[in-house]
Amino acid sequence: MKVKFPPNNSKVLVKKLREQKLRAGQPFMINTKELGTKECYLEYPDGTIVVVSAQQSKTDINILRRLSDNEAKGLRKKLSFAELV
């Protein structure tokens, strides 16, 4: 039996997961094609977004840079993420 999901259902699920993680005080990982293969964004409950890279150990991350407030707002807008702060 196949389960059919409405179009763009995965986007709704990602948005709900993001909201749950941030409201629980945990960072939310954002993967985009614009970043390198071992890089991603981490969004924190206070609204801060940083670019991080995974280290060879895969258990450590290196913070590459913090996005400015305008860059963070632009990324959220691009991804259709609501401001939660």
Question: What's the SSE blueprint?
Answer:
Layout: H1 9-23, E1 28-30, E2 39-43, E3 49-54, E4 61-66, H2 69-78
Antiparallel strand pairs: 1-2, 2-3, 3-4
Q: How many helix segments?
A: 2
Taking all residues together, what is the mean pLDDT?
Answer: 88
**Which shape, going by the Cα principal axes?**
globular
Nearest-angstrom radius of gyration?
Answer: 14 Å
Total domain units: 1
**Low-pLDDT segments, ≥5 res:** none
Structural classification = alpha+beta
Give a quick account of the main beta sheet: strands, pairing sense, barrel closure: 4 strands, antiparallel
Percent of residues in beta strands = 15-25%
- Please estimate the helix content: 25-40%
Per DSSP E runs of 2 or more residues, the count of β-strands stands at 4
Query: Can you write the helix and strand succession as a string?
Result: HEEEEH
Distance between the termini: 41 Å
In the sheet with the most strands, the strands line up as 1-2-3-4
Main attributes?
4 strands; 85 residues; alpha+beta; four-stranded antiparallel β-sheet; globular; 24% strand
Q: Describe it for me?
A:
This protein is α+β, with helices and mostly antiparallel strands and 85 residues long. It has one domain (26-85). The chain has 2 helices and 4 strands; from the N terminus they run αββββα. It has helices spanning 9-23, 69-78, and strands at 28-30, 39-43, 49-54, 61-66. The protein has a 4-stranded antiparallel β-sheet. A hairpin with an 8-residue loop joins β1 (28-30) and β2. The longest helix has 15 residues, at 9-23. The protein starts with 8 loop residues before the first helix and ends in a 7-residue tail after the last helix. The mean pLDDT is 88.
